């Protein structure tokens, strides 16, 4: 089975300025490409796992989200990083509009998106890594049985648990990969 580096999007791949939906508002976080290159060199697939409440709230469409993803994927490809998959949840149980107002097993803190990746791509979750920046990320990773969870310090406070590693930057995650995850 394959291993994956799972990444939250807003706050991990790009600065979380609130419901990012346009290329001009998308600012990559320092060292994200290096981290992904390192993981890829150690035979990890790079997979994005993201709640997209902005779709649920009607702030932007799924088409807008996919257009931004296409651009983001090309930016990674320019740096020799292949994004294997992007899993997203467009639902919100309280603030969704119309069909998007629903609870979903895919919405973090639920583990549904990780399980989809496992089933569709043959991922060994216990040998995989997840980088997130919110409690809901860490809870979803724990519920999915992800082997190593990294909490990237930022805007949100965290309730730590045993397997969580707190990092101040993505370079710390890269160093951890180099020191602990040799193929």
Structure description:
- With 183 residues, this protein is α/β, with parallel strands linked by helices.
- The protein has one domain (3-180): Rossmann fold (3-Layer(aba) Sandwich), CATH 3.40.50.1000.
- It contains six helices and six strands; from the N terminus they run βαβααβαβαββα.
- The protein has helices at 32-41, 53-56, 62-77, 112-121, 135-144, 170-180, and strands at residues 3-7, 44-51, 83-89, 129-132, 148-152, 164-167.
- A six-stranded parallel beta sheet has the order 3-2-1-4-5-6, sandwiched between helices.
- Helix 5 (135-144) links the parallel strand 4 and strand 5 (148-152).
- Helix 1 (32-41) packs parallel to helix 6 (170-180).
- The longest helix is centred in the middle third of the chain and has 16 residues, at 62-77.
- 35% of the residues are buried.
- The model has no long low-confidence stretch (mean pLDDT 94).
How would you briefly describe this protein structure?
This protein is of the alpha/beta class and 183 residues long.
Based on CA inertia axes, which overall geometry fits?
A: globular
Rg for CA atoms: 15 Å
Examine the secondary-structure arrangement and name the CATH architecture.
3-Layer(aba) Sandwich
- Please, what is the CATH homologous superfamily? HAD superfamily/HAD-like
- The end-to-end span amounts to 13 Å
What is the number of helices?
6
Percent of residues in β-strands? 15-25%
Mean pLDDT figure: 94
Number of strands: 6
Biggest sheet overview: 6 strands, parallel
Strand order, main sheet: write it out: 3-2-1-4-5-6
**Low-confidence segments, ≥5 residues, pLDDT <50?**
none
CATH class: Alpha Beta
**Share of residues in helices:** 25-40%
Order of helices and strands: EHEHHEHEHEEH
- Strand-pairing-aware structural class: alpha/beta
Q: The CATH topology, please?
A: Rossmann fold
């Amino acid at each position: 089975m394959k291993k994956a580096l799972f990444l939250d999007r807003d706050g991990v791949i790009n600065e979380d300025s609130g419901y990012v939906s346009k290329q001009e508002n998308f600012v990559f976080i320092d060292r994200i490409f290096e981290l992904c290159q390192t993981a890829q060199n150690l035979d990890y697939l790079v997979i994005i796992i993201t709640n997209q409440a902005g779709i649920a709230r009607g702030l932007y469409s799924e088409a807008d989200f996919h257009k931004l993803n296409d651009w983001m994927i090309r930016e990674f490809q320019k740096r020799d990083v292949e994004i294997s998959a992007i899993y997203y949840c467009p639902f919100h149980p309280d603030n969704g509009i119309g069909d998007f107002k629903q609870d979903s097993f895919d919405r973090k803190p639920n583990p549904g998106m990780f399980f989809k990746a496992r089933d569709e791509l043959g991922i060994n979750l216990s040998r995989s890594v997840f980088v997130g920046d919110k409690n809901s990320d860490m809870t979803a990773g724990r519920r999915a049985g992800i082997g190593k969870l990294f909490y990237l310090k930022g805007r949100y406070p965290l309730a730590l648990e045993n397997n969580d590693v707190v990092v101040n930057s993505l370079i710390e995650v890269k160093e951890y990969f180099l020191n602990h995850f040799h193929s």
